[in-house]
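Entry 14. Ran structure prediction on the chain below.
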Amino acid sequence: MTTQFHPEVTELPSSVDRRRRVKARRRCDEIGGSASVELVLLTPVLLVLLLFVVAGGRIAGTRGQVDAAARDAARAGTIARSVGEARRDALLAAQIRLGAGSAACRTLTVDVDTSAFRPGGQIAATVTCAVDLGDLTLIGIPGTRAVTASAREPVDTFRGTRP
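Output, structure tokens:
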């Protein structure tokens, strides 16, 4: 059977057109709810991923502030004239640096090594900050991550110290 092309006939018979519309409607009905199901399944995954990004940013930002606090503590210790002043000034410098920034430190520990506190010696400061991540969890489970930084500064060779 051969089909002849008739340019004057531009409309399909109504029964063929009706079948096509019914098939198209069935396809739309079959896949119509899948987008909402995908959205419901992907939303928690995207939220958890976003929380990981925020936690990583908070840790990275705090790491930079703790590095600066360790550097400031060691430098403040080298300017002092005695071992006691060096320890006090180093602790104060670290507290000021981390208090001025937005570090979310739950606990702050500053260790100052003054065993080589003499002209030509050095001061070492280690700052440890427990970063609070508890507010990032959706169900309220507390969490912390320790960030530690160390710095060493030389004591000036031509300066006086008190015992």
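The helical segments are 14-31, 34-79, 83-100. Will compare against last week's run tomorrow.
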